[in-house]
Amino acid sequence: MNFWFIIYCPFGEHCANYFNVLWDYCSASIRIDDGEVLVGEIPRKQLRLVQAWIELNREALMADWEIALNGETPFKINPL
User: Fold this and answer.
1) Structural domain that includes position 28
2) How confident is the model at residue 1 (pLDDT cuts 50, 70, 90)?
3) Based on the structure, what is the number of domains in the chain?
């Protein structure tokens, strides 16, 4: 069974370090530093996968966040 997520970071006036996850008909905003769901909901199993991906890529996510805030193109981060 394969799971496909769309993960995107909203840049602009918001400076919070989070990204949005779309899965099937569900969506959630998830904080990078601790994997906490800020808004929305995705199924528990998929949330755990996303949180594992955050754990493995937290440094790269934070670095990309800073790069994007400076108006530069962030680097691609490998999927889980």
Assistant:
1) 6-69
2) very low
3) 1
- Of 14 and 45, the one with more pLDDT: 45
76 lies in some domain: no
Strand-by-strand arrangement of the 37-41 sheet: 6-8, 18-23, 26-31, 37-41
Residue 61 · residue 32 · CB < 8 Å: yes
Interval 30-44: pLDDT, tens? 999 899 999 999 999
Record the pTM: 0.80
In a domain, 77, yes or no: no
- Radius of gyration from C-alpha coordinates of the chain: 12
Which whole-number Å values give the CA distances from 73 to 17, 63, 69, in the listed order? 16, 11, 9
